[in-house]
Amino acid sequence: MMNQMKPRAGKTSRSRNLRSLALLLEDEEPKSASLVRDHILKIGRPMLPYLMDLERSHPPLFQKAQGLISDIAFRELKKEFEKFSSLPEGKRDLEKGAFLIARFAYPLLDEKVYRKWLDRVIEKIQSDISRADNPTTAFKRLHSFLSTAMGFRVNEENYYDPDNNYLNRVIEMRRGVPLSLSILFLILARRLKIPAYGIGLPGHFIVGLGRPSLFWDPILNKVLDVSGMRKRLAQNGFSYDPSVLRPVSNSHILMRLLRNLMAVYQNAGLNLNSEKLGELAQLLLIPQ
Question: pTM here?
């Protein structure tokens, strides 16, 4: 029993020490403040929960901590994104990449919570999909489930909210932009073994399915056949060209997501956020 309690006591002691260290940011003496900051940066990610808790417990101190939070979170995220980007294209998982990008705004994001949500969605629709006699029927049923049963749609009321691009928030709000909704569709389709793929149309993103070709347009929230896609392209000033409808890679999708966010932050005057996301985008361009 004593051996079982020691790690708990040690953990409590460490927690107390990290909390106390966060509170030392109150020190106004420049040399002491610099030492505290350096020590916090050295500890890194384990400090984040205690620094972020200051928003609740010591709001004025939280203002001082925000720069540190941003520096630590981005440093840790960049390390993980470097590892992700070092993988060959076939190993760059779309789900993992989308959650990594979400950690830019939500550094304490617990991916397990959202993965469990995805698992529950699969459980709800699995039997219906398994009864589908072909991928076309399964594709349509997945669309119907997401749009009708679960109410996912484009956030027309607040289209340029950065949260529309972060997978965790898309799941929570059931709102997003065409690209993030397509990413969610593709993640679920992969788990259901539906051979769907992303298509980067000029202007917005859609999801496609092999032959006979079907397309899910998140803006219309409809499944279109080739004839319907011809009309859709014509309405947007583009002629039908099969090459425009070719599948794109996971790296292409994630790069487009990063560029979406860079544009949103830049338009909001948050240039530093845009620059940091640009660093992540640059990593995806490293030749493999």
Answer: 0.89
